[in-house]
Give the backbone structure.
Amino acid sequence: MLVAENITKKFSGVVALRDICMELHPGKVNAILGENGAGKSTLMKVLSGVYSEYQGRILLKGVHVNFANPKEAQEAGVGIIHQELNLVPHLSIVENIFLGRELTNRFGMLDHKAMKSRTQQLLEKLKLNVSPNTLVFDLKVGQQQVVEIAKALLTECHVLIMDEPTSAITESEVNVLFGIIDELRRENKVIVYISHKLDELFKIADRYVVLRDGKTIESGDMKGIDHDTLIRKMVGREINIIRTKGYLSKETEILSVQNLCLKHSESKKRDLLKNLSFNLYPGEILGIFGLMGAGRTELLETIFGLNKEGSSGDIKLNQRITNFGSPEQAMRAGIALVPEDRKKDGLVLGLDVKTNISITTLNQLQRMGLISESSEAKLAQKYIDLLKIKASSVDQLVKNLSGGNQQKIVIAKCLATGPSVLMLDEPTRGIDINAKSEIYKLIIELASKGMGIIMVSSELPEILAISDRVLVMCEGSITAEFNAKEAYEDNILKAAIPRTL
Amino acid sequence: MMTFTRKHFSKFQSLIALFILCIMLSILSDKFLTVDNCWNVMRQISVNICIAVGMTLVVLTAGIDLSVGSVLALCGAITAGLLKNGIDIPSNDLHIGFTLLGAILVGLITGAGVGTFNGLVITRFKVPPFVATLSMLTIARGLTLLWTQGFPISVFGDQFDYIGTGWFLGIPVPVWISGLVVSIAVIITTKTPLGRHIYAIGGNENAARLSGININKVKIIVYSMAGGLAALGGLIVTARLDSAQPNAGVSYELDAIAAVVIGGTSLSGGKGTIWGTLLGAIIIGVLNNGLVLLNVSPFWQQVVKGAVILLAVIIDKANSKSE
């Protein structure tokens, strides 16, 4: 049994965890629930030795432990699968799995054979059908996550922490993972499982611990609790979004895409986008659904002028052909893109809130060549108020904000350009339920003011909740189009799954 | 409160270090804290300041410019050559003479042009800045040797030498020039869209591109500025020595990078200030001067300088960790 007693963890004065108490039981899958920023990841890092300075006690099988680093935790039998992938892209699967604990033969040289066969076993167990010598770089994100899991399974452990292990893997891979979790459960391991996907937790978890604002709110058996109650405990209040669909003008489209094709930049044979055509009308929320690799992101990027080379077809904005050669041109014409990965593509994390918001409109904020600090602060404050961004001031560094607030800043800098078409790529990925519903409300409000909105998402409930119309993409083509009334999970999924599996 | 003071301390610690250095030197040598020596130090570091300011801009975009030392020599030599000999075009039996201003302008434009070329190579052909400017380091040095035929070009009259040795309102002209360069660079980095774009590109190039920033344009501007500032340094050096040496500016890029790094600018881009670089350049200058005054052997001078750079970066790292 793993017990946490009164764990408190502060980061330069900010309390991330406050008096956390919990018991994690062996032979059980213990789900840790909470919104983003509730302290789940911090708590897991405390448990697994990433953070060694904290107040309170951790008892492992009744013994007080204080891990100085992850290696000590590992040696004591606490393993963790991190939320972010911690793999070295240009090393092979074998090399990654044995990184830092390589097997050697009696001459002190690497024992490739032993490592390879052990990896082979693990991969077979996880049903990942690739050679152990494949470079991690060449794997899909889902496969990389499986490698991460294999890495954690390599060492015998009493406690296995999984921080969102399914965020990037497919349904079938999830089932394999659940099989393995079942096995670990029978071996009487303590399994700690963090996920945003509640349905998943009801399938696999035995017990739950709810965290909110760094505190333990409640724990108990999964059996005695239902979906809505859990959400209420996480959020502290109920949420619901009902889209009241407004009148839709279908007369003149604001954006029209015709016969759009995109060739793969390296292999000429593969087409990323195949002859796509669709229209977007003012005030419309167009949901685009597709599985990973369907070409959703590529579609948005091509419209945004990022794939000038290799693309063909016409993109018309307000009935004028405008095949943009760069994001600069696209933005000037009134198109904005909220990218999929806000940390990689959306924000300059080391800069402050106002700089990140004003970055798209600096030319409008300047007076005689110099940026007017007062108009810049005013602009930032306007969006902080409008989007309810929780920041201590316009000068706070964005890296210190929660995921939801970071996402709002990306949206703010897009809105600052005054776009007529707003494209959002996975706008609610990795953000908490509260922030999600706020972003939905915002999208709906923007559409009601006449903005054309394209929302790409791999979360069906989200697509169904707010779209006026749904396009389904599969392997670079549009395979179906539904009006909101005809769109259901089953017909959308049917169109999204490739036929030749 | 604790973090507040620590933050303040780390902001001023280079200044404190410089202050301590100066106190130590003035105790150890009676020549250090004299008016003459102060101007001497300032004049000596003015060239490095010009180059280091350009280097800061480049480094802020997560790039590097190794060619500045060679560009300095090339531009100094071109201005000197034009002043002294003009250009002869034998086929047309034509001789073009240059006025002082004309020669200076051609020198500066050459520097900016070489920088632009660096920028083009880096942005169009995706050559890593290290490699592109390393090549230019060799190319520009070779061009300098070709232009000078390996001999110094000297004697161009008082007017030109004024740039390197003159005084204006009681302050040496090179100090005016470097002061002007620093002022303009501070304004650019803190007040203009271009400055913002530079920080954004260094902080996160993807995000900058998706925010509609023309990355290539900004980078080309930055490298051309670095080239132009190296040329300006070349003019000062040439005027001070009253001679353009073909091997002028060798390893100046390293002094500039040292100033940038001591000043707290991150080599991975996006973080740093011109003020920091100025302070870094002054620290290096004072150190150089002090070691000479104390009669430390030139061999040891290099060891000490290297150790100071290392120490500065280690302290900087420790600070950013504790933040």
The interface with chain A takes residues 3, 187, 191-193, 196-197, 199-200, 203-204, 206-214, 270-271, 323 of chain B (CB under 8 Å). The first helix of chain B runs from residue 2 to 28. Chain B has one domain: 34-312.
